[in-house]
Design a protein that fits this description.
Mean pLDDT: 83
Structural class: mainly alpha
Helix content: over 70%
Number of helices: 14
Keywords: Membrane, Transmembrane, Transmembrane helix
Number of strands: 0
């Protein structure tokens, strides 16, 4: 436990402190809305996914431990990944509509920004400076986003705020460069190497789970549409479901088309004699409303 607590850097302590403070403040500002949000987050269907996710990640951690890549200090990095990348990927599964969306996630892991963020994250200011820097930089970033909603009216404000962020960025870059030149041995350690590769490795290993959640969600929507159609017999519904499973498989583009078929091709689902052949051919096309 001591090793775990000592693994937190000044910047991470600052981020955790301010995040918890904001979450607690938001909860007490509107208790009823916060309670509703918590209930929604732990909805029955999502709870099943969380439990399956916990089991899946436990297997990954055990695997890393069994091959000698896991140590107690990495649990902190795991928690940060889980509360940011992990849950963001899982809870935004509705936005993952095609196989290309998953390819884009992998491509982001190959960007130079990841290396720069890792280097900057390993060289922190004092705790007091970090406690002041984090909320200040966050506030400026939020103000930029708000100002950009009316870009023409706030052009001078946006330039000024971006200038402040640039100064902060250059200050951090200069400090990191100074520390890196002065003592490069602080960065290039086995522990830091494991920490650097853990996040992208977890993301890569987590993608299959999210992919299956997306596919399951799409099949659930398809089957719900079929089940609510009273004009289809029970046997007909089973035939259609089996045809979608066989032809759609785990191809997300096909499953998107299958969902559209259940909405825009009701007559064909009811009357088509060779339903399996029809679905096998139609699922490959971009199905739209026939006006």
């Amino acid at each position: 436990m001591t090793e775990f607590l000592e693994s937190f850097s000044n910047r991470e302590i600052s981020i955790v402190f301010w995040t918890l403070l904001i979450v607690v403040a938001m909860f007490f500002v509107n208790i009823s809305a916060s309670t509703h949000l918590i209930k929604s987050f732990f909805a029955k269907q999502l709870t099943y996914i969380y439990c399956t996710m916990a089991l899946y990640l436990s297997v990954i951690i055990y695997f890393l431990y069994s091959i000698g890549l896991w140590e107690t200090s990495l649990f902190k990095d795991f928690l940060f990944w889980l509360l940011t990348s992990g849950f963001v990927m899982l809870l935004s599964f509705n936005k993952l509509k095609s196989n290309n969306d998953f390819k884009n996630i992998l491509l982001k892991l190959l960007t130079v920004n990841i290396i720069l963020e890792f280097i900057a994250g390993n060289y922190n200011f004092s705790l007091i400076k970090e406690m002041l820097l984090i909320p200040f930089a966050t506030l400026i970033s939020i103000l930029v986003i708000v100002a950009q909603q009316k870009k023409n009216e706030n052009e001078k404000v946006i330039k000024f705020l971006n200038l402040i962020l640039s100064y902060i960025g250059f200050a951090i870059f200069g400090y990191v460069l100074y520390r890196l030149i002065k003592s490069p041995s602080e960065l290039f350690t086995v522990k830091n190497l494991k920490s650097f590769f853990l996040s992208p490795l977890l993301t890569i290993l987590f993608i299959p789970f999210v992919f299956l959640v997306v596919a399951y969600s799409k099949y659930e929507q398809i089957f719900m549409n079929i089940n609510r159609y009273k004009f289809l017999s029970k046997n007909r519904k089973s035939q259609i479901k089996f045809a979608f499973l066989k032809s759609g498989n785990l191809n997300l583009e096909y499953l998107n088309n299958a969902h559209n078929i259940t909405i825009w091709r009701k007559a064909e689902l009811q009357n088509e004699e060779k339903i399996k052949s029809y679905i096998r051919n139609e699922i490959k096309n971009d199905v739209k409303f026939k006006g």
